Amino acid sequence: MLNLFKRKKLETRARFESNHWGEAGRPRGATSPRQAEQLSTVSACVSLISSSIASLPAYVYRETEKGKELQSKHPLARLIKCGPNELQTWPGFVESLIASTLLTGNGLAIIERDTAGQVQALRFVPWSFVTVLVLRSGRVAYDVQNEPTGGLIWPCGRYLAGDVLHLRDRSDNGVVGVSRLRRASQVLEMGLTVNDFAQSWFDRGMSPSGILETDLDMSPHQEESLHRSFESSYAGSTRAGRMMLLSGGLKYKSQSTTAEDGELLTSRKFTTEEICRIFGVSPIMVADLSRGTFTNSVEMGRQFVRLCLQSWIEKFRAEVARSVFAGDDCFDHCLDFDLSSFMRADDLARWQSHKLAIDAQILTANEVREIEGYNSLPGV
Question: pTM of the predicted model, to two decimals?
């Protein structure tokens, strides 16, 4: 059986003196991607965007004079169907690449080709194992290191721009993207600080739960003895609700501070909204329904596709066209995603759009049946 993912020997290239890009594109602030994902809003936004794009059906088309033709036998189409490498499926590969770009500003995949120059495999590489350099010739090079504890997962070495698929977030220099976490590092640091404060609140408590009062003078030894005796009798969940017996003129006064008093809930809510702004996601999409209604929830779902996912899909399509398609394929071949799958959750809107397409003679009834997964009917 032909092994589609057989690794080819990496081409040896001359090593020029270069201007080292160092840690360009990686977060330099106190908040790393791993730390940022401890915030549930960051993790939810990254997962929502990356998994949404990864779930879309992808197809390879060839543009002709008669329109676009589906190319199911194209090498990239085989990778979409069978997996870009022996370790990942196509949705897993796309999700890893998009998530890396959202968290670090850059997503990288090594392109392996056969002797004819056609793509044979795509191997995702975490950005933390990539060093970007600019050679004396002005070309950009990528030095890929090995994962020190997990063994050889991806082929190491130096790759030029044509050897990799490099998806960037907004760049300041045109070479590497800049992480959104780095651009808004203070928002992330504030969120982590609020998280630490909340953890401390529940671990140790911000204030005492009660106060013992007496008009009598007590020595330090008596105060310590009373404190130990009181905690051993009434503290803890197993002793909750016991009747309290006080002697010697002691009075118990309850003392409690709510999360609202410390503005903890307001701070956490504000952090959620700020992080959603960074990623271009509505808070409703990450389960913050404090201002959600049926009407605006539906509209926010539509805006999420138009204002957030569409831009990432176009970036991904453009980068695939630039780097993956070889030779003349880059002029008349394209990767396309089927966004109609987002309408699967709205049966009424989906069938209404099908009816409009049939009435306007854009689609036939059998084409609609094929879209919905039904077999075509003869004579229709």
Answer: 0.72
Residue in 132, 135, 134 with CA at minimum distance from that of residue 26: 132
Give residue for tokens 């069978």: 82
- CB count, 10 Å around CB of 46? 23
Residue 315's pLDDT is: 93
Q: Write out pLDDT tens, residues 111-122.
A: 999 888 889 999
Helix axis angle for 90-104 and 40-54, nearest 10°, is 140
First vs last C-alpha separation in the chain: 42
What strand order describes the sheet that includes 58-64?
67-70, 58-64, 333-337
Spatial CA neighbour of 235 closest among 207, 262, 209, 197: 209
